[in-house]
Amino acid sequence: MTIEENLSSPAERSLARHDVPDPLRDDVRLLGGLLGRVIEESGGPDLLHDVERLRELAIRAHDNSSDVGTAAIEEAHALVEGFSLERAEQVARAFTCYFHLANLAEESHRVRVLRHRQSSALTDDDSLSAAFAQLTDEVGREEALRRVQDLEFRPVLTAHPTEARRRAVSGAIRRISDLMDDRAQDHAGGTSRAENDRALLAEIDALWRTALIRAHKPTVLDEVQSALAVFDATMFTTFPDVYRRFDDFLSGDDAGRTAPLARPFVSLGSWIGGDRDGNPNVTADVTRAAAALAADHALKALESASVKVARQLTLDDKSTPPSEALLLLRQRQAQIDAEVSAHADAESPREPHRAAMMFVAARVAATQARNADLQYGDPSELEADLTVVQESLVAAGAPRTAYGELQTLLWQVQTFGFHLAELEVRQHSQVHAAALEDIRANGVHGELQTQTVEVLDTYRAIGAIQKRYGVRAARRYIVSFTQAPEHLAAVYELAEHAFGDQEAPIIDAVPLFETFDDLENSVPILETMLTLPQVQKRLAENGRRVEVMLGYSDSSKDVGPVAATLALHAAQERIAQWAARHEIQLTLFHGRGGALGRGGGPANRAVLAQPAGSVDGRFKLTEQGEVILARYGDPVIAQRHIEEVAAATLLQASPSVEARNTGATQEFADLASRLDATSRTRFHSLVKADGFPQWFAQVTPLEELGMLQIGSRPAKRGLSVNSLDDLRAIPWVFAWSQARINLAGWYGLGTALAEYGDIDELRRAYREWPLFTTLLDNIEMSLAKTDELLAARYLALGDRPDLAELVLDEMRITREWVLKVTESEWPLSKRRILGRAVQLRAPYVDALSLIQVRALAALREGSADETTTDAIRQVLLLTVSGVSAGLQNTG
């Protein structure tokens, strides 16, 4: 039996539950079969036999309950125990490669479905056009258009260590994906298909032979380059594609003939190279370099787009006479550089619009090269020149040319500027406090601590970035663990120390409320913040705009996922009411992770569940780790993601959505209170138990995750595993997911639901209360990725049966009550696509988990010599990478 035959195995439970579409089935069979062939060629038939035997046992264990499943898992465990370390590594590699190929096939199928939906004009309730139509029905077209003009979606790319996949592996997968796309095209004769088979085998063989885990940690600038690769591949063209589709809908028959009604509403941000909280590798020099790299990519893209537009503007001056403004622009261009202008004229005889655009392209190139005589001072100068060309074309009767590729270029300039993404700085409040104490003791020009000097240099880096790329390039300064107004005042005081008598850069201090107590105290802190002179000055300058960041990770680790969700919702209500009282235009910045234990889950549904007044057409969130590639790596999927979130952002402030959210929050206030108290008590009974941190490190690969070279940031803020307080939320979530428990995403809910007990009321809340619906749906997804039999094996690694039983009991009761409330037969039984994706992978993840448990047990025993221990760690880290690929999320 070969790997691809899993899809036709009569025992495969995932097929009995969720049918696999034929195109996806065919792709997985093809890729699995080719992988099986590569495995046999590389390691011989015995290796393929071991892979197949473990796969069959894992499927049998997964597809059967009680004695049959237990017997199969025991047999699989015995098989894994009999592997040599070399064979265990080979088998783990096989399953990890399979996951990468299965993920590729599913992404390709998703793109295929989305393209079909677009080409056939199928109705899509999550689209911007549908959102606008609904909003128009409720508030009228004029008001709906006004809200469209104010719409903001602000994704912020962050480089948290959650992308376990190497860039070399990503590259191999992309090449295989391209070959699969080629294969989908019609071929004349059989030669092309045979060549495609050969090329696929070569690439899959290369994937098989490529080290799946990094030998060294990536640098911060490596992380910057990874994000910029996504910008180059999709973002630069996809963002304006979204605007174009939306404008086509808004403008109807006039699309392309009149000025667009849609405006650019996506504003990209980045923490990569700016987030120094707990990451000593992010220095002031790195921040400057990150900004320079981003600007370089933006300007290269703008130059290429400008050249493309210039080449298309072949309209002669007789059919399309230039306006007076365009002639004046050409005169100014000649004055700036007569030689470049003359060359443009020579290349564009009697084509003034083309000549003007050729000079524009030359100026963009000069901006990148820092040619002071020719470069643009800022993006507004470029936008002004493009507007002159566009208006001249319109006046000459060529609106379709004016609002075609030239409009796309204008949207790109307005979206990305010369900086590409606003680089946001983040630092811990205690670092600021220590720096101020040092300065007050020794004077700003005295002998200061290294950390204090670095803090001051960070402000100088912000000033340099603003001077070179504009204020939009870097002005937000996020203060981690904002627990007092003084923590915000410190940001401005340090800026004054850094610049002395010189003009300081424009800075907006953004409080980050992370723990439960911080969320509870947020409004009093914000009240005092308004009294700061620097804040009052910024409010007068920026139209009374204030940004507040909410941390999902630490609050969940602090009080558990249920209480944290409710606390975040309540805090948003209070902050929105505070903003309304002070006539402030509020933007809430959601520090959401990819994993459910860190606020992950479908972003559009989360937006629609926010309290009234907390969104108001503006939504900002972090896009972390592997989420960046998953959401933006393919242009079709990126377009879908942006549309979904933007549509939800537009709709969230509609009268119907606001009324529903407000009414449900009031209606189910008692339920919320009881769920909060009970779940928090249950969560604390576990995490506050004596010895819990040490036990947690024993039963999960927590400490070993620090050896996985997946990010520049340390996993801990300096404390040992004896304390969870400063353990980063990412490894907290990552470790539980690896152990097939996902505790960070659900613990405490089952006891809370059972204690409440009224199943009819709970089902009514699930139907009518969006926050509760989203919470349960996300927890159902989290439970679908758990496995009780395997979880028990991980928990047995620690000598605390009392804690192990607490976890397993809560897992059982949470699963029972979530299924009862959602009226589901099994987790995700009503969510066909997601359920299929999870269940298709589950047996294969189980196989890797068995190998991981064996490796962890050997490491915990500690009796092996150094060479053997290193080999065991290598096997463990390979399984971590594989399980991440199989579960499709890390931290």
How does this model look, in words?
- The chain has 891 residues and is mainly alpha-helical.
- Among the domains are: 1-122 and 167-210 and 841-857 and 865-884, no CATH class; 666-830, no CATH class.
- The protein has 41 helices and nine strands.
- The protein has a nine-stranded parallel β-sheet with strand order 3-2-1-9-8-7-6-5-4.
- The protein starts with 12 loop residues before the first helix and ends with a helix.
- The model is unreliable at 1-17 and 595-600 (pLDDT under 50).
Query: Rg, please?
Result: 28 Å
- Indicate the mean pLDDT: 90
Segments where pLDDT lies below 50 for 5+ residues?
A: 1-17, 595-600
Q: How many distinct helices?
A: 41
Q: What's the total number of strands? A: 9
The fraction of residues in strands falls at 5-15%
Task: Give the structural class.
Answer: mainly alpha
Descriptive key words:
nine-stranded parallel β-sheet, 5% strand, globular, 891 residues, single chain, mainly alpha
Fold blueprint:
Elements: H1 13-17, H2 22-43, H3 45-63, H4 66-82, H5 85-119, H6 128-139, H7 141-150, E1 152-158, H8 167-184, H9 191-209, H10 220-251, E2 269-270, H11 284-312, H12 324-336, H13 338-347, H14 352-369, H15 379-395, H16 399-402, H17 405-416, E3 422-423, E4 425-428, H18 429-442, H19 450-469, E5 476-480, H20 485-499, E6 508-513, H21 516-520, H22 522-529, H23 533-542, E7 545-551, H24 552-559, H25 561-581, E8 585-591, H26 603-608, E9 618-624, H27 626-632, H28 635-652, H29 655-667, H30 669-687, H31 692-699, H32 702-705, H33 729-738, H34 743-746, H35 749-756, H36 759-768, H37 770-784, H38 788-795, H39 801-822, H40 832-861, H41 866-887
